[in-house]
From TrEMBL:
One of its GO terms (molecular function) is peroxidase activity. It comes from Zea mays (Maize). Residues 1-20 form the signal peptide. Keywords: Oxidoreductase, Peroxidase, Signal. The lineage of its organism: Eukaryota, Viridiplantae, Streptophyta, Embryophyta, Tracheophyta. This is Peroxidase R15.
Length: 58
């Protein structure tokens, strides 16, 4: 039973490492080059209405 748990843990950690490797900060570079400006403006707008959201969003 313990060997199955160890094998499962090993497989899950391998899959999570592979999933993390797919992240790219330039993902929207071609499809939506202005995404950073849009997100920044909306965050400023949301935080001006509810400044208490700044902490949880970090």
């Amino acid at each position: 039973m313990a060997s199955w748990a160890a094998l499962l843990a090993l497989l899950l950690s391998a899959f999570s490492a592979a999933a993390a490797a797919q992240l790219d900060e330039r993902f929207y570079g071609q499809s939506c080059p202005s995404v950073e400006d849009v997100v920044r403006k909306e965050m400023v707008r949301a935080l001006s209405v509810a400044p208490s959201l700044a902490g949880p969003l970090l």
